[in-house]
Write a structure and sequence with these properties.
The chain is of the alpha/beta class. The chain is built from seven helices and ten strands. A hairpin with a 7-residue loop joins strand 8 and strand 9.
């Protein structure tokens, strides 16, 4: 299986890529890191899943890619994951106002020990094949989350309070046609390889 990986901040994250590729290879995924339009077009054609880190960062995906290539691919059954601590204009990417999410932060001055998850939703997404629930409950939660404008359009998978009330989501999911879209705050205390394994298995079991 092939994963297309795009980072909107490639200089900041390049050092992590070799270890990430190794981890994904061990669980049966071939990762292709892309950072230019030509690389994107080539990798898109053979990708089974897509992972966009900071898609609204300085290294932006070409504007026409979302409507012309990604949205149709997801609608036809692909998995797309978006992870960031910056805002992501998903409503523009998918041309659907129900995709809009606002950034939530834990606020300045919160000690690391205060960064704890509030809830983790039950379900196969967090148990198969990796026990994500245990790791999410034990680890520090991200400082950043996303509040959906249309709460009925999303399934909340995990929330954090991080000193703020009410708790806010940092991991969300929703269907788009036959596909699955995941949105997460940065620095979730689970590896990208484990997350991808579980999201893909959950998607496939749910009738991709």
């Amino acid at each position: 299986r092939r994963l297309l990986w795009w980072s909107g901040a490639p200089e900041r994250e390049r050092s992590r890529e070799p270890a990430l590729k190794q981890a994904l290879t061990r669980v049966g995924w071939e990762m292709t890191v892309v950072s230019t339009q030509s690389e994107l077009s080539s990798a898109h054609r053979v990708a089974d899943a897509f992972w966009f880190r900071h898609p609204n960062g300085s290294n932006k995906v070409p504007a026409n890619y979302w409507a012309e290539q990604l949205a149709p691919a997801v609608s036809n059954g692909a998995l797309a994951v978006f992870v960031s601590y910056w805002g992501m204009p998903l409503e523009r990417f998918f041309n659907d106002p129900s995709f809009k999410v606002g950034v939530v932060t834990c606020g300045a001055g919160l000690p690391l020990a205060g960064r704890r998850r509030e809830t983790v939703a039950e379900g196969d997404w967090s148990r198969k094949p990796n026990n994500l629930a245990a790791r999410l409950k034990q680890g520090y939660s991200p400082c950043y989350g996303f509040q959906p404008a249309d709460t009925n359009a999303w399934t909340v998978l995990a929330t954090a309070s991080n000193g703020a009330r009410p708790a806010y989501p940092y991991l969300l999911a929703r269907r788009y046609g036959k596909g699955l879209v995941i949105v997460g705050g940065d620095d979730i205390p689970v590896s990208a390889a484990s997350l991808l394994e579980n999201f893909a298995a959950w998607h496939e079991a749910d009738g991709k």
